[in-house]
C-alpha cells in the first residue's frame, strides 16, 4: 500500500458515522477530537478533511445537520446520524469484519511478513 | 437512488448563490473551539492559533475541499468556460459569423437530410410488427421490368397452398366515381381483399374493418372510407356506418372510417372497397399485388423457397408452357422504400461531405486564431495553468461554437422539412410524416459535439504546446507561424478543395442529366402550354355498354371541340408525358419471340388524337370514320416498333396481335406509322408503342386533350359546363396543362439536381472562404518578408506571383485528390444519370477549372493587397 491516506479516506466516513452513533449529535470539532482520542494517536487526523467527509455523508443522506449552540454558547453546526446512516454502519461494519476475517487467513499471527 | 440524490444536491450547489458562508462560519467555530482548548492546555494565544490552523490543514484549502464536495467542480469549470467563450466570440464578430455560418450550413443540411432518411428509411412502418410484413411480387419476368402484379389465380393459389403466411391479402389501386349524394367526385383508393387491414394490423377510427369472409363471392359489397372524405363530404356524421354510397354506379355499404394517419402505398386514398374473390376464368388480368404477414419464426429465405416451389408447380401445369414464373417475396419496407435508398444514401454522403468541409473550415479559422492567441495561452501556461485544463477550455469553446451553429442549423432544417412535407417530391414515399423529431435532434447534438471536438482538438493541442520562451520573446510580433500549424492549415485547405470537387462533380452530373431530360423530344408538335388535359370518368352500368360509352365519348369530343377558342379535342387512355394506363405484350408472326414481344404502352385513342397533339404521321393513315366496332380491327404503330420489327420493309398492311401468342385476340391490321412519343416519362428508355382505336374498343376513364388558341386555363369553366351538361354524374379530375404535367414529371430529377447543386454550392463557398482565409492570413504573417523583398527591389508582380503560386499549388493538390474521390462518389449516382457517363470528362474538366478559378481569385485579392502596401510603413510598424 503506497499511500496510507487512501485507507484513511475510505474509513473516515465509517469512523464519523460510528462516532455519531455512539456519542449522539456532535459538531465537526467534537467529531475530530473524538476520533483522534479513540485512535490514541495512531492516526494523524488533519481536521480539515473531516468537513468534506461530513458534507458527502449529508449528501448521501446518512447524517443531517443543523445549527445549534456549543457548550460555550458559540454557534456551531451539529451533525446527527439518520436511520439510513445506522443501516450504513451495520453494512460497512459487516464488510470490514468479513474483510479482516479473510485477510486473517493470509496473515497468521506470530509469523514474520516480509 | 442515493448516488443520484447526492449528484442532484451537488448540481444544485453549483447554482446556489451564497456558497461559502456556511463553511466560513463552521470553520470559524471550529478554530475558535480548538484555539480555546489549546489555550487552556497552556499555549499562548498566538501559538494556539498557529497550531489550530496547522492541524486543520489550512483554512483556504479546507474551504476549497468543501466547495469541491458541495458542487461538481467540472460543471462549475464548464460554466465558467462557456461564459468565457461567449465573451470571446462576441469580441470577434467576424470570426464568429463566418464560423457560425459554416456550421449552420453543415449541420442544417445534415439534419434535414437525416430527418428525411429517418422518416423514410429508418422509422418502422406504422403497422403492427412491420418486420414480419412482406410484399409478394408476381415474377412473370418479361423484359427488364420488375414489380409485376399478380392475377387472381395466383392469389387464390397462395391463399390455399402457402403455409408461411399468418395473414395474406391482395389489393389493386383503383379510382372510383362517387355519385348520388352530391357533386360527382373522382376518388383514389384501392380494391382490397378481406384480410387487408388485419394483415397490416391497423384499426379503423370509426366502425370496423372487413370480416374475414367479406371477400367471398356473392357477399354485399362493402368499403371503408378515409377520415378526410368522412369529414369533408359527410361532416363526420356517425350515421355513415351502414350507409350505402354509390361507387362507379354501384351501391356499396360503408362499414368504417380509416384515420388520416393510415397510409399505404397510395398516399391520397379515400376508399378501400372489398375485392370479391370471384374464381377467374383465365390467368389474368395481372392487376393484384400481394401483402402478407409471416408466421412467427418464418424467414424471408424460407418463404421465398416455398413460393418458388408453388411457382414451379404453376409453370409445369400450364399447357401453354409459361416460363420464368417466380413469386419473389421481399420485406414490405424494402418494397416501399427500396428504390429511393440509392438517392438518400447519395444525399447522406453529400451532406456528410458538406459537414466535413464546414469542420475543416472552422478548424482553419481556429488555427488562425490560435496563432493570434498564442501569447495569451503562453502566459497562462507560464503562470501555472494546467495544460489539461487549457485544452478543456479550448475544447469548450469549439463545442459551444458547434452547438450554436447546430442550433441555427436545426432551425434551418425545421424550415426545410416543413417545406418537404407540404411539397414532397414525387417518388419519395413516407414524407408526409417528415419531422425533426427526438432521434434527429439527438443525431444533430451528436454531430455537433463530434465536429466541435474534431475542429477544436487539433488547434487546442497545438496551441498548448508552444515553445514558451520563444513565443514570449517574440513579443507579439507574430513573426513565424509554427511550421506544423502552417502545414496543417494547408492540409485543411487542400481537403476543402478536394471535397468541393467531389460534390461539384456529383452535382454537375445530376444537373447535366436534368438538362438533357429537358431536351428529350416530346414527340408531338402541339405547344404544351396550349394543351389542356383532364380525366373524364363515366361509371356505372349504362356506360358498361360499349355502344352507350362510344356515343357518350363522341358527344364529349363534339361538345368540347366546338367551343370557341378550341382548335381540336381528342381522347386517349394514355397521355404523354406519363399518364400511364394499359401496357401489354404483342405478337407479330415470325418477328416476335415465342412468348411475345415486350410489354409496351397501348394507348387507345380517338380519331382526332394525332391531329390534336400534332404527332406526325409517317406512313399510311390515322384512325378515322372507317374504323367502327364492326369493321376489321386496325392498329397504328410507332416509328420505334416499325424500325425494330419491320426493318427495311413497309409495315402498313402487316398484322399485329394484342397480348402475345397466348391471347385469343384477333390480329389487327397495321394502317399507319406515327412518330415516337415517350409515354413513360422523359428519360425512360425508348419503347415501341402500338395504338388502338377508341371507336373500335371504347374504354373508360379517358383523358381529354384540348388544343386551344390562347391560355387554356380560361376555357376550363366552359369545358366543365359542356361535360356536365352531357351527364352531371361523370366526374372530371386532374385538370391541367400539358406544360404542367411535363414540369411535374421531372420533379424528382429536378429535386435531386437542386439539392445536390445546393450542397455543391455551399461546398464551393466554404472552400473559397477557406482559401481566402489561409491566403490572407499567410500574407499577413509574411508582411515583413514581403516588405523586405519589395524594398530590395522585387516587383509587385514577383510578390503577387509568390502568394498566388502558393494558392494555386494548394488548389491543384485539392483538385487532384478530389477528382479521385469524385470518381468513387459519382458511382453511387449512376442509376440517377441520364445520357451522361459517371466519368463525363466535360464535367470533370469544368469542375477543375471552376475551382482553379476560385482559388486563383481567392489568393489574388490578398496578394494584390500585400503588394500595394508601402514597404517602408510595413517595416516601420514592426
CATH superfamily of chain A: Winged helix-like DNA-binding domain superfamily/Winged helix DNA-binding domain
Number of domains of chain A: 1
| Rg value of chain A | 16 Å
Low-confidence stretches of chain B: 140-147, 475-480
Sketch the major β-sheet of chain A: 3 strands, antiparallel
The total strand number of chain A stands at: 3
Shape of chain A: globular
CATH level-1 class of chain A: Mainly Alpha
The computed structural class of chain A is alpha+beta
Order of strands, widest sheet of chain A: 1-3-2
Helix content of chain B: 40-55%
Order of helices and strands of chain A: HEHHEEH
What does the model show?
The complex is a heterodimer of chains A (114) and B (878). By secondary structure, chain A is an alpha+beta fold. Chain A has a single domain, classed as Winged helix-like DNA-binding domain superfamily/Winged helix DNA-binding domain (Arc Repressor Mutant, subunit A, Orthogonal Bundle). Chain A is 58% helix and 14% strand. Chain A has four helices and three strands, in the order αβααββα. Chain A has a three-stranded antiparallel sheet. In chain A, strand 2 and strand 3 form a beta hairpin. In chain A, helix 1 crosses helix 2 and helix 1 crosses helix 4. The N terminus of chain A is likely disordered. By secondary structure, chain B is α+β, with helices and mostly antiparallel strands. Chain B has four domains: 70 residues, no CATH class; 190 residues, no CATH class; 308 residues, no CATH class; 193 residues, no CATH class. Chain B has 27 helices and 23 strands. In chain B, the strands form four sheets. In chain B, strands 14, 16, 17, 18, 19, 20 and 21 form a seven-stranded mixed sheet that branches. A six-stranded mixed barrel of chain B has the order 2-3-8-5-7-6. About 2% of the residues of chain B have low confidence. Chains A and B meet through helix 3 and strand 3 of A and helix 1, helix 2 and helix 4 of B.
Amino acid at each position: 500500500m503506497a499511500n496510507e491516506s487512501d485507507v484513511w479516506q475510505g474509513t473516515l466516513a465509517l469512523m464519523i458515522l460510528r462516532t455519531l452513533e455512539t456519542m449522539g449529535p456532535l459538531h465537526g470539532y467534537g467529531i475530530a477530537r473524538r476520533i483522534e482520542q479513540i485512535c490514541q494517536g495512531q492516526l494523524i487526523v488533519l481536521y480539515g478533511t473531516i468537513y468534506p467527509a461530513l458534507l458527502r455523508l449529508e449528501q448521501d443522506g446518512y447524517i443531517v445537520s443543523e445549527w445549534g449552540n456549543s457548550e460555550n454558547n458559540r454557534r456551531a453546526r451539529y451533525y446527527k446520524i439518520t436511520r439510513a446512516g445506522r443501516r450504513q454502519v451495520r453494512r460497512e461494519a459487516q464488510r470490514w469484519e468479513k474483510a479482516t476475517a479473510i485477510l486473517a487467513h493470509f496473515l497468521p499471527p506470530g509469523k514474520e511478513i516480509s | 437512488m442515493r448516488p443520484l440524490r447526492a449528484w442532484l444536491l451537488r448540481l444544485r450547489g453549483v447554482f446556489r448563490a451564497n456558497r461559502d458562508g456556511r463553511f466560513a462560519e463552521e470553520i470559524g467555530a471550529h478554530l475558535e473551539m480548538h484555539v480555546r482548548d489549546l489555550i487552556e492546555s497552556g499555549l499562548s494565544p498566538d501559538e494556539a492559533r498557529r497550531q489550530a490552523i496547522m492541524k486543520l490543514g489550512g483554512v483556504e484549502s479546507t474551504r476549497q475541499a468543501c466547495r469541491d464536495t458541495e458542487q461538481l467542480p467540472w460543471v462549475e469549470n464548464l460554466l465558467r468556460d462557456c461564459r468565457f467563450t461567449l465573451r470571446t466570440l462576441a469580441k470577434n464578430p467576424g470570426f464568429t459569423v463566418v464560423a457560425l455560418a459554416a456550421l449552420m450550413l453543415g449541420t442544417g443540411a445534415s439534419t434535414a437530410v437525416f430527418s428525411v432518411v429517418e422518416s423514410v428509411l429508418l422509422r418502422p412502418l406504422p403497422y403492427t410488427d412491420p418486420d414480419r410484413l412482406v410484399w409478394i411480387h408476381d415474377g412473370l419476368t418479361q423484359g427488364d421490368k420488375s414489380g409485376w402484379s399478380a392475377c387472381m389465380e395466383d392469389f387464390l393459389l397462395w391463399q390455399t397452398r402457402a403455409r408461411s403466411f399468418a395473414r395474406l391479402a391482395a389489393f389493386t389501386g383503383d379510382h372510383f366515381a362517387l355519385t348520388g349524394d352530391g357533386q360527382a367526385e373522382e376518388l383514389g383508393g384501392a380494391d382490397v381483399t378481406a384480410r387487408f387491414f388485419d394483415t397490416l394490423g391497423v384499426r379503423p377510427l370509426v366502425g370496423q374493418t372487413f370480416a374475414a369472409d367479406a371477400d367471398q363471392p356473392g357477399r354485399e359489397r362493402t368499403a371503408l372510407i378515409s377520415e378526410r372524405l368522412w369529414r369533408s363530404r359527410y361532416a363526420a356524421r356517425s350515421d355513415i356506418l351502414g350507409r350505402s354510397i354509390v361507387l362507379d354506379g354501384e351501391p356499396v355499404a360503408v362499414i368504417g372510417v380509416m384515420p388520416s394517419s393510415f397510409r399505404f402505398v397510395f398516399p391520397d386514398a379515400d376508399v378501400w372497397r372489398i375485392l370479391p374473390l370471384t374464381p377467374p376464368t383465365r390467368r389474368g388480368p395481372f392487376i393484384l399485388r400481394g401483402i402478407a404477414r409471416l408466421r412467427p419464426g418464418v424467414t424471408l429465405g424460407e418463404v421465398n423457397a416455398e413460393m418458388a416451389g408453388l411457382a414451379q408447380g404453376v409453370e409445369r401445369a400450364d399447357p401453354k408452357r409459361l416460363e420464368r414464373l417466380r413469386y419473389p417475396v421481399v420485406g414490405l419496407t424494402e418494397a416501399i422504400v427500396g428504390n429511393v435508398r440509392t438517392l438518400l444514401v447519395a444525399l447522406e454522403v453529400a451532406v456528410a461531405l458538406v459537414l466535413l468541409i464546414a469542420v475543416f473550415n472552422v478548424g482553419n479559422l481556429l488555427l488562425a486564431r490560435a496563432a493570434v492567441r498564442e501569447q495569451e495561452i503562453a502566459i497562462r501556461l507560464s503562470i501555472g495553468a494546467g495544460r489539461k485544463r487549457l485544452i478543456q477550455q479550448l475544447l469548450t469553446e469549439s463545442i459551444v461554437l458547434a452547438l450554436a451553429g447546430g442550433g441555427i442549423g436545426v432551425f434551418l432544417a425545421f424550415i426545410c422539412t416543413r417545406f418537404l412535407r407540404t411539397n414532397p417530391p414525387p417518388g419519395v414515399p413516407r414524407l408526409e410524416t417528415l419531422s425533426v423529431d427526438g432521434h434527429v435532434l439527438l443525431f444533430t447534438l451528436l454531430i455537433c459535439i463530434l465536429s466541435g471536438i474534431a475542429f477544436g482538438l487539433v488547434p487546442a493541442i497545438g496551441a498548448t504546446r508552444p515553445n514558451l520562451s520563444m513565443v514570449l520573446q517574440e513579443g507579439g510580433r507574430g513573426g513565424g507561424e509554427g511550421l506544423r500549424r502552417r502545414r496543417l492549415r494547408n492540409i485543411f485547405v487542400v481537403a476543402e478543395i478536394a471535397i468541393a470537387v467531389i460534390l461539384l462533380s456529383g452535382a454537375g452530373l445530376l444537373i447535366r442529366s436534368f438538362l438533357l431530360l429537358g431536351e428529350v423530344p416530346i414527340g408531338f408538335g402541339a405547344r404544351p402550354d396550349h394543351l389542356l388535359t383532364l380525366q373524364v370518368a363515366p361509371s356505372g352500368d349504362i356506360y358498361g355498354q360499349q355502344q352507350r360509352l362510344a356515343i357518350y365519348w363522341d358527344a364529349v369530343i363534339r361538345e368540347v371541340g366546338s367551343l370557341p377558342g378550341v382548335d381540336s379535342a381528342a381522347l386517349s387512355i394514355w397521355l404523354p408525358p406519363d399518364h400511364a394506363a394499359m401496357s401489354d405484350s404483342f405478337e407479330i408472326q415470325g418477328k416476335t419471340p415465342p412468348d411475345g414481344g415486350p410489354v409496351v404502352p397501348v394507348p387507345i385513342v380517338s380519331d382526332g388524337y394525332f391531329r390534336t397533339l400534332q404527332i406526325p404521321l409517317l406512313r399510311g393513315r390515322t384512325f378515322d370514320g372507317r374504323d367502327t366496332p364492326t369493321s376489321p380491327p386496325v392498329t397504328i404503330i410507332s416509328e420505334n416498333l416499325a424500325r425494330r420489327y419491320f426493318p427495311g420493309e413497309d409495315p402498313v398492311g402487316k398484322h399485329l396481335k394484342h397480348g402475345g401468342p397466348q391471347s385469343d385476340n384477333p390480329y389487327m391490321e397495321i394502317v399507319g406509322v406515327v412518330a415516337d412519343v415517350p409515354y413513360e416519362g422523359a428519360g425512360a428508355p425508348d419503347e415501341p408503342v402500338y395504338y388502338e382505336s377508341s371507336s373500335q374498343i371504347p374504354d373508360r376513364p379517358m383523358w381529354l386533350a384540348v388544343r386551344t388558341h390562347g391560355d387554356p386555363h380560361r376555357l376550363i369553366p366552359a369545358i366543365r359546363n359542356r361535360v356536365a351538361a352531357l351527364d352531371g354524374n361523370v366526374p372530371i379530375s386532374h385538370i391541367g396543362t400539358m406544360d404542367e404535367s411535363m414540369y411535374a414529371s421531372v420533379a424528382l430529377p429536378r429535386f435531386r439536381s437542386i439539392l445536390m447543386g445546393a450542397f455543391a454550392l455551399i461546398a464551393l463557398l466554404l472552400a473559397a472562404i477557406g482559401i481566402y482565409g489561409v491566403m490572407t492570413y499567410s500574407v499577413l504573417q509574411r508582411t515583413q518578408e514581403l516588405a523586405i523583398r519589395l524594398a530590395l527591389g522585387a516587383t509587385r508582380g514577383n510578390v503577387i506571383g509568390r502568394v498566388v503560386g502558393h494558392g494555386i499549388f494548394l488548389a491543384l493538390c485539392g483538385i487532384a485528390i478530389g477528382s479521385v474521390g469524385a470518381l468513387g462518389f459519382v458511382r453511387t449516382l449512376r442509376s440517377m444519370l441520364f445520357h451522361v457517363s459517371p466519368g463525363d470528362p466535360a464535367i470533370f474538366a469544368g469542375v477543375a477549372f471552376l475551382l482553379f478559378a476560385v482559388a486563383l481569385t481567392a489568393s489574388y485579392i490578398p496578394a494584390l493587397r500585400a503588394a500595394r502596401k508601402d514597404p517602408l510603413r510595413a517595416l516601420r510598424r514592426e
